[in-house]
Amino acid sequence: MKIAARIMAMVVLVLSIGGAECKQMDWVKIGPDGKSFALALSGKPFIPRGFNYDRDHNGRLLEDYWEAEWTTVREDFAEMKALGANVVRIHLQFGRFMLGPDRPNEKALERLDRLVVLAESLGLYLDITGLACYKKEHIPEWYDTLSEKDRWRAQAAFWEAVAKWCADRPGVFCYDIMNEPVAPAGCREPGSWLGEPFAGYYYVQHIGLDQGDRKRTDIARDWLRAMVSAIRKHDKRHLITVGLLPWSLDKPGLTSGFEPRTVAPEVDFLCVHIYPEGGKIGESIDLLKGFCVGKPVVIEETYPMHCPVDELGDFLLKSEPHAAGWIGFYWGKTIDECRKSGTWADELMVGWLQLFGSMTNQEPGNNVD
Question: Residue 21: inside a domain, yes or no?
């Protein structure tokens, strides 16, 4: 069934892009210095630069429209490529991919496969982020009633299914196990797995509800090992990471429990999400340095949310000695479309996209054709 679905996806895609041939892509690996990336066959440096494509400008998550509006997805991917991206980060919700604790949704996996084929046809790599619970209405009732042990088992089943489908696809840059996980501190209410919402989305997720007598860093390590083991059952090659909150450093006060030095040995590289504050670029650089513990570090989320665009540009420039890649956002509106709308949010996007274009223009490692 999987082979037949993949053949059909390839046929449909080739027809939909006018008969163009899908190019064979080089696999991405860790660079020889251990702190960067390289292409496996050519040995050329690879610098991940791209976009989070988590939703459209109407606030719909990718999985809400990627079946009925495939043309929109194709156009958006082509636009991101034209802007200079080589990586697109997609976010998969657990509830869309699992029909039960050990029952993957084959139709969703076929749609993911079609997306990988599309990315490869354009020379784009996917950062596949999983286990998302961004919308409460998409979370199965049975999922939130599971014990920690059973929830981990269900999450491992998710990653087994995804890894099995994607194991032979060079167009996958990495698997990001979860967006912004948090290890439990103390005891939480039953079913309260999610953090506080932001703009209606639940981006932060707890991996347990009761710390018990365990160290939070030990819980984070054990969970990562379980997820990595599930992936490696079917996929020995693709890189694995995790999307860390900026407050993951082992410092007094707010912390996620995913301390970089504890996390790093379990994954191939680290990702951190940093939105610099105006007038505090130096502090953001110091924060970034805290994640530099001997493995590549990708700034997986950044945007001029809390600072002017020129200050974000300053941050990105100063981050180059410490970061191996940068991923911002794209929500399906081109620069021209954003300019025509005249809204504050779209003007902000124009500034970001122009900054991104200036960063990626003729950068070594940016093009993979």
Answer: yes
Q: Which domain holds residue 183?
A: 2-360
Does residue 366 form part of some domain? no
Look up the CATH number of the domain holding residue 67.
3.20.20.80
Other beta carbons within 10 Å of 183: 25
Answer yes or no: are the C-beta atoms of 93 and 138 closer than 8 Å. yes
DSSP for 126-157, please give it.
Answer: EEEEEEE--SGGGS-HHHHTS-HHHHHHHHHH
Whole-angstrom Cα distance, residue 168 to residue 159?
Answer: 15
Q: Is 369 a member of any domain?
A: no
In a domain, 97, yes or no: yes
In angstroms, the CA 179 to CA 204 distance is 7
How many domains is the chain partitioned into structurally?
1
pTM for the full model? 0.91
Cα distance between residue 282 and residue 284, in whole Å? 5
* pLDDT per residue rounded down to tens, the chain (369 residues): 444 444 344 434 443 443 344 458 999 999 999 999 999 999 999 999 999 998 888 889 999 999 999 999 999 999 999 999 999 999 999 999 999 999 999 999 999 999 999 999 999 999 999 999 999 999 999 999 999 999 999 999 999 999 999 999 999 999 999 999 999 999 999 999 999 999 899 999 999 999 999 999 999 999 999 999 999 999 999 999 999 999 998 777 779 999 999 999 999 999 999 999 999 999 999 999 999 999 999 999 999 999 999 999 999 999 999 999 999 999 999 999 999 988 999 999 999 999 999 987 644 344 444
